[in-house]
Prior knowledge:
Elements: E1 5-10, H1 14-25, E2 31-36, H2 39-48, E3 53-57, H3 65-75, E4 81-85, H4 90-98, E5 103-106, H5 111-121, H6 137-154, E6 158-163, E7 168-173, H7 180-188, H8 191-202, E8 210-214, E9 218-225, E10 229-236, H9 244-262, H10 280-293
Parallel strand pairs: 1-2, 1-3, 3-4, 4-5
Antiparallel strand pairs: 6-7, 6-10, 8-9, 9-10
Helix pairs in contact: 1-10, 2-3, 6-9
Amino acid sequence: MVTQKRILIVDDEESILTVLKNSLKKVEADYQVVTVKDGFTALDQLRLQPFDLVISDYNMADMDGLELLEAIHYLQPTTPLIMITAYGSDTLQAEAHHLHVYRYLTKPLDISAFRQIVQEALGDRPVSRPKITMLSDEQYHQLSRLLESLLKEVSAGYIFLADAHGRIIAAVGRKTDLPMEQIASLLSSGIATLAEAGRALDGEADAISLTYREGKNEYLYAVNIGQQFLLILMIKRGPYSSRLGSVWYYAQQTAVSLRDTLSQSTCPDPQQIFEQAIDRAFEDELDKLFTAGE
């Protein structure tokens, strides 16, 4: 007899719980899906019996999704966690990443991709995708301290650390409306080119180098840390902005320290980038629910 895999879904909207639960029935009859409407009830369920996967919305009353997943991380540290949000930000994504969240999804949701993520999180599909850096609490706090120090030294508005695939690992500074994840992804694509250029020039592919752009309102600095990471600084343009040489000096020193910290991190294999197949019936229904809830 095949043992049913238990999935816990947490969302304060009953209609969304119903749609997500029904969407999983279409791909796997052996899933036992339990739905609850708040974080405290979710923790009660987890204390009664373990789950193979927990999926939680972020924006909930009393206990938000991040607080819930943090509690689960300590209660059942090996349980895969998926967070869904309509209020995504670089900071929220970095915090989710720090909690080793298996996948961070934003609304509107691609139901076909959602199903595939669930199957891969449960080990029901083969996984093949770029590695993602996992940090201990101590390493994460050390990264944040290094970024905060650099922020003050160069009077930057915003600084973040991303991996070679554009995923944000840590961020400090004031929030920005700029699409930072997209910017990181575009800049990170140049890491491989820089590495090959360095290899052709002097046989050194991992040297720290600087990319600089003088924009209308902001200066953009991108510093590669080997071939795996990218340090990105946004500095508001003005008469008292830090000079290029000064920024480069402090950014280079920080990059060396970041490299030492990141060298102690681990890189397990999560799920692959998914094909954009669409289940329109479920997605249209979810879109309406998410729109109505905003």
